[in-house]
Design goal:
single chain; alpha/beta; 2 domains; 15% strand; disordered C terminus
């Protein structure tokens, strides 16, 4: 289940109406839901007593009066009855689909941050929560208004206890940046970031993960890719493939006691890499137009240059891009088995149209934002202008 926590404005005027509505909607989410309200604003103690919320009046503040977000998050993570928590702005109505989404992600991910934006609508009176259709009526009102904040606004954060504990700097609510910082920090810690806008508002689940799998043959032994890479002019297959091996440090190693040193080498762990197509590009994962409408072979690995020693060994954290020949004549002169750019795309316009179609498909599948489509096309155009030029010294 879920612990919701927040901090409020004074409960007076319009703020009283919308904050009461929001907190009541939270309490109705589930019998075991927990709600913690931080701060000593006017009316906070009374609303907590009325609705059965936990009230924590003492909050560290900046000299300006703004509340430090870090202390609120720290205290919530210490006090919460549940392992999954959610901070939300105190004027946001939540419905049952929100809890369902949080439970689904919490069941699948150890470390995660779910976040999203609210839909704005004007509500000036208390909601009749005895009406069984209240949630659907509010949803339709919000969709009719069609006012959603832009990408800079983030209004709720769902995460597992401990993700932000004692890690948030001196940022205050009421000023910009703190919400974006939370998303950045979670990503830096390796937490899964899950955008919930359409999942919660339209019950549209996020797109499925795409990664190499043994079951469908997209995860393969490294040696199976050797022929393709070795056949590309200018490329060499690694002379030695790294293998992590089991080491036997003695019978008490599981207690942290080493009795065998150096350890006895054991069997290596299995190692798999993404399967590749005839151009040497990965066939699994989220394939951007660079791979589906390619101008080159792109790898996540590269080899050490002879000038720096250990030639043929893998170079850490460096990938490679090996462009296709620009024309058929140039390809044949090189002995390159990969079709040239001219053989693939009759013109620049044809190439860019294929890129646009590939990018549009990624948008429709949910892997690329619509706002980034033109950026992908522009970047592809720049690469085409570089790669499609005949190489110096190429056979005409």
């Amino acid at each position: 289940m879920l612990t919701l926590f927040t901090t409020a404005k004074p409960f007076s005027g319009h703020s009283d109406v919308i904050q009461r509505n929001a907190l009541k909607s939270w309490k109705l989410l589930h019998p075991d839901i927990e709600v913690i309200l931080f701060g000593d604003e006017k009316g906070a103690a009374e609303i907590c007593q009325e609705l059965g919320l936990r009230h924590e009046p003492n909050v560290e503040r900046h000299e300006s009066g703004f509340k430090y977000i870090g202390t609120i998050f720290d205290e919530a993570q210490k006090l919460a009855r549940h392992d999954v928590l959610c901070y939300a702005n105190c004027d946001i109505l939540l419905c049952g689909d929100f809890v369902a989404a949080a439970q689904r992600v919490g069941a699948e991910k150890d470390a995660f941050l779910m976040f999203g934006r609210r839909w704005d609508t004007d509500i000036f009176k208390p909601i009749d929560f005895s009406n069984p259709e209240w949630a659907e009526e509010i949803r339709q009102t919000a969709f009719a208004a069609n006012q959603q904040r832009d990408e800079w606004f983030i209004d709720y954060f769902v995460f597992r206890r401990g993700l932000f504990l004692h890690r948030i700097p001196k940022l205050v609510i009421g000023r910009v940046y703190w919400d974006n910082w939370l998303v950045w920090f979670a990503g830096e810690q390796g937490a899964a970031l899950v955008r919930l806008d359409r999942w919660v508002s339209a019950e549209e689940a996020p797109p499925p993960s795409r990664y190499p799998r043994l079951a469908d043959g997209t995860a393969v032994l490294p040696e199976s890719t050797a022929d393709v890479f070795s056949g590309i002019p200018g490329m060499r297959f690694p002379a030695h493939l790294p293998r992590a091996a089991r080491n036997d440090f003695g019978p008490e190693a599981n207690r942290g006691i080493v009795t065998t040193l150096p350890p006895l080498p054991g069997k290596p762990y299995p190692c798999f890499v993404p399967a590749i197509d005839r151009d040497g590009n990965d066939v699994a994962g989220i394939r951007l137009p660079d791979l589906t409408v390619p101008l080159a072979t792109h790898t996540g690995w590269n080899l050490r240059h002879p000038q720096i020693g250990a030639s043929g060994e893998l170079l850490n954290l460096i990938g490679a891009t090996v462009a296709f020949a620009s024309t058929k004549e140039e390809r044949e002169a090189r002995g390159d088995p990969r079709p040239s750019i001219a053989e693939r795309y009759p013109s620049r316009d044809v190439y860019l149209e294929q890129v646009r179609q590939a990018a549009q498909q990624l948008v429709e599948d949910g892997y690329v934002l619509a706002d980034d489509l033109e950026l992908l096309v522009d970047q592809a155009a720049e690469r085409y202008d570089v790669f499609a030029r005949p190489s110096a010294g190429a056979t005409p």
